[in-house]
Write a structure and sequence with these properties.
Blueprint lengths: L2 H18 L9 E4 L3 E2 L3 E3 L2 H18 L11 E10 L2 E9 L1 E4 L19
Antiparallel strand pairs: 1-6, 2-5, 3-5, 4-5
């Protein structure tokens, strides 16, 4: 028996062992999003201030939808639209607020099984 044959046999044995390993529920983090949230139109003298206030209002409304710590960075389909009005600049933010949830499919009453070498 050559070294090449024994390495091939070991690889085959590993693949068979891996296929026989019991299946586990996926435990990946996923992005969960609330419905689209539309902030109030904020009018301010400058665009920088109007954008900041529009985002602050969007965050407040996203919290009201059940997102504990909404961030603009995680939102999807987001946009801030600004335009000139008679009293300054008006901006409005819209987007679906999202959070990252860990292990969404794992029941809370079931302990996760530790696997040697993976969860050490």
């Amino acid at each position: 028996m050559t070294i090449r044959q024994s390495a091939g046999g070991a690889a085959l044995a590993f693949v068979i062992w891996l296929a026989a390993w019991p299946p586990h529920a996926a435990t990946a983090a996923v992005r969960w999003c609330a419905p689209m949230t539309l902030g109030a139109a904020m009018t301010e003298p400058t665009e920088v201030v109007a954008r900041r206030k529009a985002l602050e209002d969007w965050v407040r409304r996203a919290r009201a939808r059940g997102i504990a710590q909404p961030t603009w960075r995680l939102a999807v389909n987001k946009s801030i639209v600004c335009g000139k009005v008679a009293t300054g600049i008006e901006c409005q933010a819209r987007g679906a607020p999202c959070v990252i949830r860990q292990n969404p499919g794992l029941p809370r009453n079931r302990r996760q099984r530790r696997r040697p070498g993976v969860d050490a």
